[in-house]
Amino acid sequence: MPTRREFLAQIAGATAGLAFTQAPARRRVSIGGRRVTVVDVHAHTFVPDVLELVKNTPLAAQAKGGSAAPDILLGPGTAARLRYMDREGIDYQALNVNAWGYAAERALARDLVQLQNEKIAQAVAANPDRFVGMATVALQHPDLAADQLDYAVRTLGMRGAAIGGSVEGMELSDRRFDPFWAKAEELGVMLFMHPQQAPGTTQNQRLQGKGGLGNTIGNPLETTVFLSHLIFEGTLDRFPGLKICGAHAGGYLPSYTGRSDALCGRAGGNGDDCRALKRKPSEYFRNQLYIDSMIFQEDGLRNLVAQVGADHIFYGTDYPFDWPVGVDFILNASGLSNAAKEAILGGNLVKLLRITPA
Description:
TIM Barrel; five-stranded parallel beta sheet
């Protein structure tokens, strides 16, 4: 049996290397000397359990591609996700499954969404002080999607839903999707729209070649088209309680709504398309539409604040993808008040997602 001295020596030797393996201290973000809560609205995840469910179906290849990044996996990637959040100063992530599976027939779509939402709810229950859940829905079946959203919010405690910008080539401004919009309005939840592969935008043939243009240009373009249809086709007017966040800084629309407003000020031609609108296109960004902060340049961020207001911008990182949009991008932005920085980093989402900071 070792002596006390030998035992203490063994403990010292065993713990000597711990300093090299411990996780870094969690960053706590403060503004003006006051602690603020940071919430990431644009945080991707993928539920690996679906791989077995969609095996031997047309969705198998799509699911396999979506699970390619280890850090994105719900469950196996949680430790890496929390380390990232601690390092970056992010207190909460709104877990989003990037919209996929819109080609699924009704029975598979029902099972797929149920599995994903239950697993997201479990992840949130295991880490309630770090995650909030955003539901998935089968938008290709609007009545089913409405029921799925209702169950996810009322029973599973989801704070909103993640949706794509179109469904198998169909625009979401089509009246067939009204049952879903009506349910989202009734529940008062925020919807986070993120582009998925879509004809005419991300899959436009002209975006082939260098530069990853299907992503670099196509993703913001899909958001731009999605939001524009909701405005001009009257969806936002029919459902004035909708709250929708467009990923990638709302695409190109918030910075160029002046052209849409100008269209509505012209006599004849396409200006007639605006007659039924209840407000100017740009004004929907002061009311129902929100955007994330993925604009990359300080001048761009200041312009977005001028265009839509700091109260309609959410902090977003596109986790786990390596974009230069950390919290310091917001903290160091000149010309923004401390109140605006706090609102963007988390204050807005704390209210809309009903987060009670730990």
